[in-house]
Amino acid sequence: MDAELEPVALTPQKQDNAWKHCEIYKYGDRLQMRCLYCRKMFKGGGITRVKEHLAGKKGQGTICDQVPEDVRLFLQQCIDGTVRRQRKRHKSSSEPLSVASLPPIEGDMMVVQPDVNDGFKSPGSSDVVVQNESLLSGRTKQRTYRSKKNAFENGSASNNVDLIGRDMDNLIPVAISSVKNIVHPSFRDRENTIHMAIGRFLFGIGADFDAVNSVNFQPMIDAIASGGFGVSAPTHDDLRGWILKNCVEEMAKEIDECKAMWKRTGCSILVEELNSDKGFKVLNFLVYCPEKVVFLKSVDASEVLSSADKLFELLSELVEEVGSTNVVQVITKCDDYYVDAGKRLMLVYPSLYWVPCAAHCIDQMLEEFGKLGWISETIEQAQAITRFVYNHSGVLNLMWKFTSGNDILLPAFSSSATNFATLGRIAELKSNLQAMVTSAEWNECSYSEEPSGLVMNALTDEAFWKAVALVNHLTSPLLRALRIVCSEKRPAMGYVYAALYRAKDAIKTHLVNREDYIIYWKIIDRWWEQQQHIPLLAAGFFLNPKLFYNTNEEMRSELILSVLDCIERLVPDDKIQDKIIKELTSYKTAGGVFGRNLAIRARDTMLPAEWWSTYGESCLNLSRFAIRILSQTCSSSVSCRRNQIPVEHIYQSKNSIEQKRLSDLVFVQYNMRLRQLGPGSGDDTLDPLSHNRIDVLKEWVSGDQACVEGNGSADWKSLESIHRNQVAPIIDDTEDLGSGFDDIEIFKVEKEVRDEGYYTNTSEKLFT
Fold first, then answer.
1. Among residues 379, 460, 377, which one has the least CA distance to residue 417?
2. Which residues form the BED-type domain (predicted)?
3. Residue-level pLDDT at 729
4. What is the mean pLDDT of the chain?
5. Among 565, 568, 557, which residue's Cα sits nearest to residue 533?
6. Neighbour order of strands in the sheet with 267-275
7. Distance, CA of 501 to CA of 738 (rounded, Å)
8. Is residue 376 helix, strand or coil?
9. pLDDT tens-digit profile of 172-187?
10. How confident is the model at residue 47, as a pLDDT?
C-alpha cells in the first residue's frame, strides 16, 4: 500500500500544532498521517487522534513512546485547553502574545526576570503558562540562556552581566524560539560574538564538534558567565594539578557509592578490547550494575593476550577488587585466550560465570547474513544510492525536502548492523524516495541525466524493493535482539533468550519451507551455540514473569535445568539452595502473591527485577536469587561509544609519574563519558556525515571518482539547515516479544548442522 501513498505538503490552512509532528499522505480521496517519531500510520481519526497519540492520552489508542518530552507536554497543554485560553485572553488584551502560547519547536530555553518592563509582558504574570521545570533537564538544560532583566530593555544590558547573581529564584524558563521577535538585535549580536569565540577556541585546539553536546558544556559557560568580566582561565598546571586531583576524587567517590548496589543486585565485569590503528592493544575494565556502569582501569594488553595465564591473573585481580561475592559474571569476547582464562576463572571462583559477549555473537550472525550473495548485492545497490545522495549537496537537499528532514542512513552498533538498519530506514521512506525521483524537481536536476545519477533508477525498480523487503524480514528480528542486548534502558538478561527465539521463529514463519529457512538458522545456530550452554540466559528467561507464564510445560522442563545450574553455582549455601527449590513451586504455579491480579498485570508493565522486588517477599530467597540474575547485562559493549578515549597514550609515556597522571586522566574522562550514556544524552551527533560515524558508515557515504567535487556539487555551505530531533528515539524492543513459546525445536541443536561443521568449539572447550 505504501506505493500508493502520495506525500502531501503542509499548507498554511493546517493550523493545529500536531501537524508539525507528522507526515501527511494522500491515499485515494483520504488523508493519512504518520507519526514522525514512532512511524505509526493513522488511517483515520484526523489530526486529533494524532495529537492524543503524541500527548500520551490513555484510552485514546496507542501512545507514542518516542516523542520528545517537551513536545508531549506542549500538546497536552493544547488538549487541556491551556494554550487556547491563553490565546483567547491575549486576543482581547493589549499586551503582546504570550510566549507560553507558542510551541517550543527548537527546545531552546532562556530565563528572564519576572519584572521586565518596556512593553514586554512578564512571564511571571498570571497570563503566562510557565513550562514544566522538567523541561530544563538533560540537553534542554544545557541550552538554557540566562539574562538580567535589563538585557531586554532596548539592548542596553551591561557588558558585565551577573547571570547567576541575585533573584535567581525568580527566573522563569520560556522557549527562546517563541520570543525571537521580542529579543533586541543587539542581544543576538552579543550571543553570536560569544559563539564565534567558542568556535574559534574549539577549532583552534582541534576539538570535535560533538564537544558542545557534553553535559558539562553549558554548566561551564554558566560558571564562566557567573564570574563576570575578567574572570581568569585555569593554567596548564592547574589542569594537571588540583583540578584533575579533585575530579579523580569525585569519580572515586561515585564508584564507592556503587559498591552497595553491587552487593545487593550483583554486578558484571566487562572486558573491552580495543585495537589502535598502530596495532596497540588495550583492555578496558568496567563494572555494570542496573544503576550505572563505571570504568575501573585499563591495561596494556600487548603481552597479556599472548598468555592465558597472564590474562587469568589479570581477571582474577579484577574479581578480587570488585569482590568475588558481588560478581555474577565476567563478559569478554570469545577468542581462545579468553575461553582458556574464563575456564580457569570458573574453577577458582565457583560462584561466578565466564560469558562470551552476546552482542558480538549476534553481530557475527548479521555479518554472515551480509555475505550471502543476493543480500550482499542488495546492500551494494543501496550503498550506491546513498553514496550518490550524500556526496551531492543539491541532491541531499532535495532528499531532505521529500523526507521532511529525515536521513536515509541509520548508524548502528557495527558496520553489519548499520547495513541492515539503513536498509530498514530506506524501506520506511520508500514512498518519499519514489516521490523524489518522479518529481519535476528531480527531472529538471542536471544530475538525473548524468551517468552517476543512474543509480537512482533503482528507487523505481520493484525488484530492488522486493529484495529490500525480504532482507528486512530476515534481519529486523536480529537487529531487535542486538538492541536488547546493548540496551541502556534495562538489563538484558531476562530478554535475550526470547529475542533469539523470536528471530528464528520470524524467519521460519516468513519463509515457511524448511529448505529455505534452514540456511539462515544454521548461521544463527553457529554463533548462538556459544551461548547455548551458558545457563544464565535460559535462567533469565525462566525468571522473567512476562515470558515464563507464556511457555508450555515442555519448554519449562528444558529451562529448569539451567535454573538449577545457576542455583548451585551462584548460591554457595546449601540450606539457601534448598529453600529456593521449595519456593520455586509457588512461582511455577502462580501461587500466593504471584497469583494476585496486581502481580499478574505487573508482569507486562514492570521490569523483571522490579517485579520480584515488589511481589517476591513471600519467597525471599528465590526473589534475591532472581534479582541477581535479572539485573545483569549480556554484552561487554555497553554502548556504541564514539570518540573513544585514546588510552594508548598512557603506555606511550616512559615516565612513571606522568604515566600515573595520564591513567587518572583516562579514569576521569571515561567515567564522564559513561555519565552521558542513555536516551537523549547527546553523547553522539545525529548527523550521519560526521566523521565520528565513519567507522560504520564508510561504505554508505564515501565518495568515489564519480563524486569528485565540481560545480559546487559537494559544497557543504549550500546545504539546507534542517532540524534533527536531538532526543534519541526511545524504543521498547521488549514490548512485543509476544506470547507463546511452544516450538521447542528452535533451540535444539540439530545433528546435521554439527556434522556440517557449523559450530565452534567454544562451549565444549569451556564446559568440559
1. 379
2. 13-71
3. 52
4. 79
5. 565
6. 293-300, 281-288, 267-275, 327-332, 353-356
7. 11
8. helix
9. 444 333 444 445 567 7
10. 84
User: Given the DSSP bridges, would you call strands 6-8 and 267-275 parallel, antiparallel or unpaired?
Assistant: unpaired
Strand-pairing partners, residue 175, are 109
Q: In sequence order, which residues have a C-beta less than 8 Å from that of residue 506 and are 6 or more positions away?
A: 473, 476, 477
SS3 content of the chain, % helix, strand, coil (to 5): 55, 10, 35
Q: 242-356+649-677: which CATH topology?
A: Nucleotidyltransferase; domain 5 (3.30.420)
Integer CA distances (angstroms), 208 to 75, 119, 204, 273, 642, in order: 35, 42, 11, 24, 11
Burial bucket for residue 444 (CB in 10 Å: 0-12, 13-18, 19+): exposed
φ/ψ of 95, rounded to 5, equals: -75, 155
Task: For residues 252 and 271, give the distance between their C-alpha atoms in angstroms, rounded to a whole number.
Answer: 20
**Integer Cα distance of 323 and 157 in angstroms:** 58
Instruction: Reply yes or no on whether the pLDDT at 319 is more than 70.
Output: yes
- The answer to whether 609 and 630 are in contact (CB under 8 A) is yes
| Partners of residue 33 on adjacent β-strands | 24, 42
Question: Whole-model pTM?
Answer: 0.73
Beta-bridge partner residues of 25 = 7, 32
| Distance in angstroms (rounded) separating the CA atoms of residues 683 and 414 | 17
How far apart (Å, rounded) are the C-alpha atoms in residues 568 and 560? 12
DSSP-assigned letters across all residues of 468-483 = HHHHHHHHHHHHHHHH
Is there a contact between 18 and 56 (Cβ–Cβ < 8 Å)?
Answer: no
Any idea where the domains of the chain sit in the sequence? 4-88, 242-356+649-677
> In this structure, are residues 459 and 468 in contact, taking their beta carbons and an 8 Å threshold?
no
> pLDDT tens, 453-477?
888 999 999 999 999 999 999 999 9
Largest Cα separation within the chain, whole Å, is 85
Residue 548 has pLDDT above 80, yes or no: yes
Task: Give CA–CA dist 200/372, Å, rounded.
Answer: 48
pLDDT at 484 (0 to 100): 93
Give pairs for 153-158: CB < 8 Å, separation 24+. 153/116, 153/117, 153/118, 154/118, 154/184, 155/184, 155/185, 155/186, 155/187, 157/187
| 3-state secondary structure labels for all residues of 239-300 | HHHHHHHHHHHHHHHHHHHHHHHHHHHCEEEEEEEEECCCCCEEEEEEEECCCCEEEEEEEE
DSSP, res 205: T
Distance of CA 532 to the CA centre of its chain: 27
**Strand 144-146 and strand 172-175: pairing?**
unpaired
| Residue 672 burial (10 A CB sphere; 0-12, 13-18, 19+) | middle
Q: How far apart, in whole angstroms, are the C-alpha atoms of residue 147 and residue 131?
A: 18
For 557-569, write each residue's pLDDT tens digit.
889 999 999 999 9
Phi first, then psi: give them for residue 144, nearest 5 degrees. Answer: -75, 125
